[in-house]
Specification:
Tetracycline Repressor, domain 2, 0% strand, 8 helices, mainly alpha
Length: 270
Amino acid sequence: MAVHTTKGPKRARNITNTSQKKAQARQLNRARVRMRILRGAMNAFGRLGYADTRVEDILEQAQISRPTFYRYFKSKEDAFDAVDEVISMSFLQTWTSAVESVDDPADKVEKGIDAYLQWLYATGPVASATRRYPVHPDIHIATRREEGIRMIVDFFRDEAFKALGEEFDPWLFAMLQAATEKAGELLISEGLRPGDAKRAKQSMMRIIAATLTEGNFPVPPIPKAPKSEGKKTGKKPKKKTGPEKSTGLPESKGPSKSKGPLKSKGSSTP
């Protein structure tokens, strides 16, 4: 009498499951090691800059061996390109999440500027290193940068059209993007201090609102210099005794109280 058994198929399935689990574990371990190398590379490039960073510096920061490094990256340039890809993706996610969280065009602009500056604060020195990228066939930073610029320019253009209902010269939005990027570069070069990101956002919102509004639409007030950065002479200003001389400029009538299309809800200051 023949006896049927299912041990054969079960054993085959068990072997397959075990092989799959081992493959997944190897893949997960490779991802962890690669991210460890990237973190070390970010620290090295952020601290030393691209030109002065050696593979040895990355090995030291990541606490790995040279053979391990070359199993994942073929050169310093390859690792640098991977670092830029990671921080570019983080910016895209941060920006998209911020601007999609609100509907009003002015709120979207404010959220976008805030997201950019906060992202810059988080990436800091390594973002500065990638902005001074070298020309190299293995480094694709220029392509990613062009894509990022195009995304921000299109964002400004779309939101202006939603608010004002007409198309404007693309150069206008390219200049706004350039000003935003320059603000970020200044924050990095001057060293980020508490409150700097907020001040940069206030200044950028003033520039953007003044650029994209017309006629009697109000704009946020010009940001004043912090008391700690004002001129300190220790002398009281002299009282004027004579009549004020005319400057030849038209007299300011002050901001209008009518609402503009790009004014944020609740407050005129970001």
